[in-house]
């Protein structure tokens, strides 16, 4: 109990202080607990098990005074609520009497003017927004047109280059005019592909020589004639 008075904490927090050998009044001692008081499921202490609490004794005069004050309070509150209800009903009746067709017409005109003002603001904002959308749409269309033009130009360049290449290669084409000279050139310059190259770099010709093949072709043409 002395340690409890010094540190100024609950007795439950210092329940195990006597078990600690190193505890001193000037030392810092902290014990974490979950409840500040005894849990509800624990039974009562043995010293309080058979204790019967005494009921407070109120005198008759004090009881009558308390009853009188309570009745006065109820009366005052009831009258105050009734007064508020009557005042609200009176104000409502006065408002109904004051309200007339003229005031309703003025109110309608004022509301209509406010509505027209709001509509004008909304229309102005809408026009600005639509103008911005039109400008953005124009820019998108122009950008797409430019991209299409660039694509067409690139395609035309590719086609022109291809046509030029074909024209350059057309010189080597075999046509009806130069087919005879092409055949004579092929027969004069016969290439024998029937040969092989070994690892030492020597060429080994095939079984038939180019001369024999030329002679055979000449013989076949003579027989056909």
TrEMBL record:
GO CC entries = mitochondrial small ribosomal subunit
Q: What is this protein called?
A: Small ribosomal subunit protein mS26
Which spans does this entry mark as compositional bias, Basic and acidic residues?
A: 200-218
- Compartments, record wording: Mitochondrion
Q: Which residues cross the membrane?
A: none
The region called Disordered is annotated at 200-225
Q: Which family does it belong to?
A: Belongs to the mitochondrion-specific ribosomal protein mS26 family.
Q: Which organism is it from?
A: Cardiocondyla obscurior
Which UniProt keywords are listed? Answer: Coiled coil, Mitochondrion, Ribonucleoprotein, Ribosomal protein, Transit peptide
Coiled-coil stretches noted in the UniProt entry, renumbered to this chain: 142-169
Q: Which PANTHER family match?
A: 28S RIBOSOMAL PROTEIN S26, MITOCHONDRIAL, SMALL RIBOSOMAL SUBUNIT PROTEIN MS26
Highest rank taxon of the organism: Eukaryota
* Pfam families, sorted: MRP-S26
